[in-house]
Amino acid sequence: MKGVYFPGTGEAHLKEWPDPTVHPDDVLIKIKASALCRTDLSIYYGNPVVGKKAPGEVIPGHEPCGIITKTGKNAKHFKEGDRVVASIFVGCGFCKYCRAGEPNICERVEILGFDRHGGDAEFLVVPENVCLPMPDEMSYITGAISTDVIGNLYSTMKEMNVSGKDIVAIIGVGPMGLGGTLSAKGMGATVVALDLVDSRLNKAKTLGADYIVNAKEQNPVEFLMKLTNGEGVDKSVECSGTPEGVATCLDITRKHGCVAQIGEMAEAKIKPSAQFLRKKLTYYGSWYFYLQEWGGIADFIVNRIGNDKAEKMVSKRYSLTEQDISQAFKLFDQHKTDKVVFTP
Question: Is the pLDDT of residue 338 over 90?
Fold first, then answer.
């Protein structure tokens, strides 16, 4: 089958890979859409942020969806023809985290696109228990961004108890921040989007942000303190993955407020007493959603967001050709696109 290949040198190519083998507990998915993520670029440049495999050993892509075309003999819950989204994480299935719906923090977890073949290909084999049913009303493009982007941020907003009484600031409105904008707005909050790039801010505005702030042009702390009569926002979500983003979140959030960390980074400098302790903030680390939340996530996407709005997050769609693959990753790396989806 055809799939994306990363040599780890800042290039992406099309490669012929062996056809996947379906084991008794597995299903074979014909990929209909698979989205690119900023973490894919860590493999692209030869330094994967997670996982144990070297670049080029497995097909990338951890946001796929498609149609089941074959099932293993032990697969009982899905059948050929079912539309499914594949969860990123393949856990052991038996530890306390897997049983609680969090295979993402299982000690023996395998991650699609990092530890085992991902979805940037024509087909994907996964254990049946990582498949999530796609409602008929959900498009494949929406399905590709329903887990890592919308599902992750939906779960974060639910954990912070976001509601219509809240002002929520989203720091960094790349794909994850746009997912946060959709989720917070869908829960009724007043949303403030902060970024350094006008095109991203304008996209956030079209997706429901009530206020947009270019932090290069105006001081976000001053703006938000004025907006909230000196109190600060109720909740903030850090999606930029920068130390400056962390500092901004802590500065703009009110006493007894909540901060969630989405953006990946190695370290950040904070002032614990002034920014955290004396404000009695609650800080959430967010990495995916509980699997049992999927029903609520799918319903939220279909009935509160809709395909039309969700698909606005996707700025480019590509087929699986050498030229398209090379261009897709190059433009994505250069921040010349928002979310990108392969449609084999």
Answer: no
